Amino acid sequence: MSAPRKCGACTLCCRLTAIPELNKQYGVWCRHCSIGEGCKAYEQRPPSCYSYECLWLKGGLPDNLRPDRCKVVFEELKGHFIYLVLVNFGMPDAWKNRDIRREISQLAKDGFAVVVSVEGGKHKYMLIPEGQTKKEVEARLRAAQKEISETNRCQPQPTQQI
After folding, report:
1. CA–CA dist 153, 98 (Å, integer)
2. What is the pLDDT of residues 106-150, one digit of tens each?
3. What is the secondary structure of 23-59 as a DSSP string?
4. Distance between CA atoms of 152 and 19, rounded to whole angstroms?
5. Per-residue pLDDT reduced to its tens digit, 5-39
6. C-alpha 126, offset from chain centre
7. Based on CB atoms within 10 Å of each CB, which residue in 33, 39, 54, 140 is the most buried?
8. E strands, 26-151, where?
């Protein structure tokens, strides 16, 4: 992993994640987002935004996979060994990019289940690491979603295995 980064002009998480403190739903641009520039309320941003770090921001992805460039956000569900791959609306095949698929495969090799959410969860795919079952991963995902809904962000559930 490389050193942590700054968001810069990337604002894709401002669309693809929910922000309960602002009643912002998944898939809708945040009212404080200046698309391609950043947050207009950065100093007063809510806790879920303050603590949010996608995998690219943490230095875990190459530069070409910055979310605004590749059109997907890799989000870790901490403590549940699951990564969400949130695909930008209108670009349902963005996650099929060779570099993205390589990162998804590597996460699974590292023991993480990967849930790909396309078009706001209308289409969902799940990559299950060796030695785990779909049932186990779905149970962890439900536990993560319950925890998330009680604290900050909400995400869709998987149905199809990849």
Report:
1. 28
2. 999 999 999 999 987 777 899 999 999 999 999 998 898 888 766
3. TBPTTS--TTEETTTEETTGGG--HHHHT---TTTTT
4. 7
5. 899 899 999 999 888 889 888 889 999 999 999 99
6. 13
7. 54
8. 33-34, 38-39, 72-77, 82-87, 113-118, 123-127
